[in-house]
Amino acid sequence: MSDGTGEFLDAFDPDIPAQPAAKGQSFWRQQAEYLPAAGLFLTGLVLWELAVRVFEIQEILLPKPTSILSAFSEQFSTVVASGWATFREALGGFVAGGTLGVLMALLATRWEGLREGVLPFAIAANSAPIIALAPISNLWFGITDPVSKMVVVAIIVFFPVMINTVRGLTEVDASEIELLRSYAASPREVMLRVRVPHALPYLFNALKVGATLSVIAAIVAEYFGGPRNTLGVFITQNASLGKLPEAWAAVIIGSIIGISFYGAILLAERMLMPWHVSFRTTET
Question: 203 and 161 in contact (C-beta within 8 Å)?
Fold first, then answer.
């Protein structure tokens, strides 16, 4: 065929040897791509420090970065322990919501009637704000039970995973499916050879969004109560006492968790989808 369908299918045929990858950029050139972001970040910190000092802003309103760094150092073991507890809640909800979203997408792709019936409920669940879900979940599972936070995270993650996976599984070139069916391929083979590879970029985009949302949802859910060794409770307690540097130190840990979580999903994406066009490099 002249439309590239054969090449697309050959990419997933284990009997055909993989083509050698194009030579990538050098290590230092890749690192240089992050310099603008690092420079902007450092510039922002310097301007923040200068603004607080020059305009004599009270630390109860906006602490200096140096004060936050000092509090971060002093409370390091406490905020790390709290961050670990919050991460477990975020991870548990992320796995539950992501798994349920993928399974529901597979079922919805197989039965169109199910897709039409489930989508309105998924949209309704996604429209519910976290501040409404958290108190209800605390009442159902107990305010100190991590499951109550995982449920909130799972609901938040479920919708983007399901919607994006359904789109990836259904928006497939009809000629690719017809080609496989002409070779008497079963629905299972069509799913594994065409639909699933096509849906992987959509799925990983949803997982990267869900990774950051899961941390946010877990922390916000903790604002409505939870164990003392969690980031949300730590932030609210210190903020209510006027200890803003300590609260900001916990925010830093939350940011680190979110970035690390996102990076883990990105690494998994690169490992499972090395064939995708977004990861191809060419010589310059």
Answer: yes
Tokens describing residue 137: 């979940």
Q: Give the residue-averaged pLDDT of 142-159.
A: 93
pLDDT band at 22 (very low <50, low <70, confident <90, very high): very low
46 plus 145 within the same structural domain: no
Same domain, 29 and 143: no
Domain span at residue 105 reads: 71-279
- Structural domain count, the chain: 2
pLDDT at 26: 61
Q: What residues contact residue 1 under an 8 Å CB cut-off, 6+ apart?
A: 175, 179
31 and 104 within one domain: no
Q: What is the DSSP letter of 18?
A: P
Q: What rounded mean pLDDT belongs to the chain?
A: 84
Distances (CA, A) of 187 to 83, 191, 245: 45, 6, 58
Place of tokens 């897709």: 115
Q: Enter the tokens of residue 248.
A: 């900001």
Check residues 22 and 217 and name the one with the higher pLDDT: 217
Q: What is the mean pLDDT of residues 55-76?
A: 92
Buried b (16+ CB within 10 A) or exposed e, 180-203: beeeebeeeebbebbbbbbbbbbb
Higher-scoring residue by pLDDT: 19, 241: 241
Give the separation between CA 130 and CA 94, rounded to whole angstroms: 15
d(CA 130, CA 217): 7
Mean pLDDT of the region 211-234: 93
What residue type is 190 in one-letter code? V
Residues 47 and 87 in one domain: no
Q: What CA–CA distance (Å, rounded) separates 82 from 184? A: 55
